[in-house]
Structure formats: C-alpha cells, structure tokens
Amino acid sequence: MNEALYYRVSGNNIIECYLCPHNCRIREGKRGICGVRHHIKGKLIAETFGRASSVAIDPVEKKPLYHFYPSKQILSIGSFGCTMHCSNCQNSSISQCKDISQKKSTKAEPEDLERMIVENDLGLAAFTYNEPTVFYEFMTGLAKLFKSLNVKSVMVTNGYINKKPLLDLLQYIDAFNVDLKSFTDEFYRRITGAELKPVLDAMEIIKKASKHLEITFLVIPGLNDQRDQFINMIKYLAHNFGRTQVLHISRYFPNYKMNIPPTPPEKISEFVAIARENLDFVYAGNTGDYMDSNTYCPKCGHLLIVRNYYSVRVRGLRGNNCESCGNTIEGKF
Ligand code: SF4
Questions:
Q1: What is the pLDDT of residues 133-155, one digit of tens each?
Q2: Looking at residue 184, which CATH number applies to its domain?
C-alpha cells in the first residue's frame, strides 16, 4: 500500500487531501471524490500506485498534440479514477471508479515499460486515458524514470489540480494537453462536478513555466456551444497565452449518461473560423475528413505539416522554422 502525497490529518482523525481543488475531507475507511484515494487507519493511501488500466503505443496526434514531435509514437499509460464526473465521460469504465480493488489492472512495472520504450525506440510517454492527477505518485515515479531514459513525458489532463502539486510536477512533465470543458462555472459545476477557475489557474502556471501546452475544447450542443461564450473564451486564450496557442475544437458524440445528439460538423466549422480570427493554430477534432487538420505557416500560408487521420508528414519545416519564409513556429518539431 503506497501512501499518498499532499494530505494532512486534522482533528477527529479526518484526512484532508489537498492534491486537487476539491480538498476532500475523508473519514476513516472512506475515499475522496476521485474514488481512488483511501483513508486507512490515519493514512491516505494512493490506490492507483502501480495499477495501470491500460498501456498502449499511440500516435502522439491522438492525445491530441499537434505541435509536439508530430508523427512520433507515444507510450500511453492510464490508471483509474477522476477528479471530475462528466456526464459525457468517454472513459467511464476506468475513470468513474468506486472501488479500484474490483478493477482488473494491466501489468506496468517500470522494467516492462522501459523494455517497451527501448524495443519500440520511443522518445515520448503520456499519462492519459483517465485523469493522471489522481495517480500522481505512480505518474511522477514513472516520469522520473522516463526522464533518466531521455523520454519526454506528457500529461493529458482536465487541469483540476492544486498549485503546489502542479508546481512540483513541472520538473518531470514536458508537455500538457488540458481539456477546457467550458468557459462558464455553471457548466463546470453542473456537468463535471468541479469549477472553472482552478483549470484556468493551472493552465496559466503551465504556460508561465514555459511548458508545451495544447488545449482541447469539446463542443456539446446546447451546453457549451453559445457563440458569445465561445468568443469570450477565445479572447481570453489569445490575451493570456498569445496568438500561437494551439487549440483543438472537438466534435462531441453521445457517451455515458449523455444522449444529446452529436455536434453538427457545421458548428465545428463555425467555431474554428471564429477561433482563427485570434489564434494561429486551431484544429478540428473528431470530424473525420470533413475538415483538414493541416498546419500552415500563419505568416506566409506555406503548408508545414500534412495530416490525414493519424497519417502525418512534416514537410514544410526546417527545425522550428517555416522553410518558405523563415517564420518561427511554436512547438517541438
Ligand atoms: S485528489 Fe481525490 S481525494 Fe484528493 S482532493 Fe482531489 S478528489 Fe479529493
């Protein structure tokens, strides 16, 4: 049993976990909101430690990351639990977890993962599939190992993490994809059971630390597809993170408890066009071949990276520069 980080014991034997902004107060025998941090005899146990739900090798574009070593493969590791309870969760069988001991886990010993990295000549690893914050101790242990192997670590996250654990994490994680689910607190509270502000704060910390950040926004009809709110969000991103902030605007499909029909592709086109007025690198996700997801130089329009689903070709870049006009493109190429 591995003891968790970021908790204290208060009076009446109540544990206060301060890993994420829920700041749960947990009684003996109970778990926090994430379902995987368990108060046992005055200690908080990180039940996710060493327990992977899945280990796979994916294209890095699948995370999605489009400006971080495009076309490379990435070792992907998930565990169980989540700090949010979205009614449209795409991975509810692993993330909406009540008792991890009932879950079947995959072997993910450090030496097995190291072997996969060496055998497949991988330079990237991602913590993904469920929310990595809730397997913080497992993640940081592996990220330290990956760093020693010169492998870059990526966190695919909802961004719901407190400042101190995030600051501590930055030394191990090279790139983040943060799922910004809405630009209203009302949506966050009703659909995810969390709050908006800590997610914005986390993104600002990541950006300030000069880590690579890409943002994903899933458009759900009737819930977060109001044009005015979307424009406010884009202006916020452009103002705080700059025009070069990479944004993925994704199409929703019904999942878990949500049966709203899928986002019309026309809505994605509309939002992509709006976002491109203020941001240089906006991509449509989950749209099949309805819209192209290539990267063009924002200065001269030269085609830099060609994408067709997960087939990717970097063709117009010399290092970080457009081969046509020399413009510097933000990212790791
Ligand atoms: S990580 Fe889990 S236990 Fe800790 S505060 Fe967040 S939801 Fe609660």
A1: 999 999 999 999 999 999 999 99
A2: 3.20.20.70
Q: Give whole-number Cα distances, 289 to 22, 166, 177, 284, 307, in Å.
A: 39, 36, 23, 10, 10
Domain that holds residue 20: 7-46
Is residue 174 domain-shared with residue 210, that is, in the same domain? yes
CA-nearest residue, atom 6 of ligand 1: 20
- Distances from the Cα of 171 to the Cα of 145, 165, 249, 287, angstroms: 13, 11, 29, 35
Best residue among 26, 34, 95 to mutate for probing ligand 1's pocket (most ligand atoms within 8 Å of CB) is 34
Going by CA atoms, what residue is nearest to atom 3 of ligand 1?
Answer: 32
Return the C-alpha torsion angle 72, 77, 82, 88, nearest 10: 50
Query: Does ligand 1 lie within 6 Å of residue 19's CB atom?
Result: yes
Neighbours of 122 (CB within 10 A): 19
pTM equals: 0.97
Cα(311) to centroid of ligand 1, in Å?
Answer: 38
For ligand 1, the distance from its centroid to the CA atom of residue 161, given in whole angstroms, is 9
Residues 225 and 300 in one domain: no
Residue 34 beta carbon below 6 angstroms from any ligand 1 atom: yes
Our answer on whether the CB atom of 199 is closer than 6 Å to any ligand 1 atom is: no
Q: Is 24 in the pocket of ligand 1 (CB under 6 A)?
A: yes
Q: Residue 1 falls within a domain, yes or no? A: no
Pick the atom of ligand 1 nearest to 136's CA: 1
> With contact defined as beta carbons under 8 Å apart, do 20 and 44 qualify?
no
Q: Where are the beta strands (DSSP E) in 150-244?
A: 152-157, 175-179, 212-219
98 pLDDT band, cuts 50/70/90, is: confident
Beta bridge partner(s), residue 315? none
Please tell me whether residue 225 adopts helix, strand or coil conformation: coil
Q: Is the distance from CB of 146 to CB of 173 less than 8 angstroms?
A: no
- Residue 320 CB–ligand 1 contact under 6 Å: no
